[in-house]
Amino acid sequence: MLYHLMTSLDLPGTNVFRYITFRTAWGMITALVLSYLVFPYFIRWMKQAKVNQIIRSDGPESHLLNKVGTPTMGGVPILLGITVSTLLWARLDDAYTWMVLIVTLGYGLIGFVDDWKKVMHRSSDGLAGRWKIVGQVLIGGGVLAWGHLSGAIEPTLAIPFVKDAVIDFRELWVGAPDALGWLFPAFALFVAVAVSNAVNLTDGLDGLAIGPVMTSAATYGVIAYVTGHAKFADYLGIPYVAGAGEMIVIAMAVVGAGLGFLWYNAYPAQVFMGDVGSLALGGTLAMLAVTTKHELLFVLVGGIFVMEALSVVLQVGSYKLRKKRIFAMAPIHHHYEKQGWSEPKIIVRFWIISIILAMMALSTLKLR
Question: Which residues fall within 8 angstroms of residue 168, CB to CB, at 6 or more apart?
């Protein structure tokens, strides 16, 4: 909004709004300040309304003692910070801006319904898993289908570590290029649903999920900047995506809003983000990966989320096939709790791993 307003005025000093780095910095500050200032009122109101996190009875015993009564749905102020910051500082004529924002808010709405059902019914069940998936598929699929039909998203897949290596789905079979082109939005939809739920699974300890979310968002912010810069993209041998550079504004807004949230979510947490936050932020990260054409790199960038999701898949699969569990409890952060690790130790060590993986992911840009 400010970009279009200020550049149209053509007054002295307004030219600075054309610089994406300026808008990124102030977008992050806006999200941080807004999130930080809103949370005290939000926490107070949620406590008065008794909208508290419902703790699973089959979870770690310490959670039943220490986390009962903590307000939930902290994702609402996070999304407020991200949305306001994006609308103020991002270019609204960029299709990617709206694609990411719609998925973020749409997945946040699904999480809101889930959290609200838990609170109203005083149960940890919430919205049935199948309906979450249906909602994610409809919202994500609709956005990605529009992106494919409008030409905003090319049906190509970049291969990490290899210079200029791109798979074009339209060229896999000469006889039906248009039909095969739809394989990419289908794959991108899988990424969106998988990442959203992986972040949701990770949100089990105070500050555990938001740390890697911020690290991953910052990493994709850097990737967005170089991907949307023709000279940098050519030098690094990565796909150039016109308009993708604008995604750094959203990515750093996530970091800013996340920092504001972390102030109150740090151990011991005063508020939890809930599914409204975790599903939405997972959707944001997935769309950042898709719009920057670095979907496969998420295995490194979001390695913590991948690890958490895999631990659940392996645990369930092992029990169904062998009637034996691999971990003391899944997701894997609960396994370490069962092993006697303190909550802060698990959180900080997972953050460290997330930072190392992010650095490895960024190094792949130069390795090409």
Answer: 154, 155, 156
Q: How is residue 244 annotated by DSSP? A: G
Cβ-based neighbour number of residue 66 at 10 Å: 16
H-helix segments, the chain: 2-9, 20-49, 61-66, 75-89, 95-121, 129-150, 177-181, 183-202, 210-227, 230-236, 247-265, 274-291, 298-301, 303-322, 332-338, 343-367
Question: Tens digit of pLDDT for each residue in 164-211?
Answer: 788 888 887 766 667 788 999 999 999 999 999 999 999 989 999 999
Owner of token pair 């279009």: 4
Cα separation, 362 vs 368, whole angstroms: 11
The radius of gyration computed from the CA coordinates of the chain, to the nearest angstrom, equals 21
Query: What is the model's pTM?
Result: 0.94
* Distance, CA of 368 to CA of 365 (rounded, Å): 6
Nearest to 108 by CA among 259, 238, 268, 276: 276
DSSP assignment string, 167-213: EEGGGS-TT-HHHHHTHHHHHHHHHHHHHHHHHHHHTTSTTTTHHHH
For residue 331, is the peptide bond before it cis, meaning its omega torsion is within 30 degrees of 0?
yes
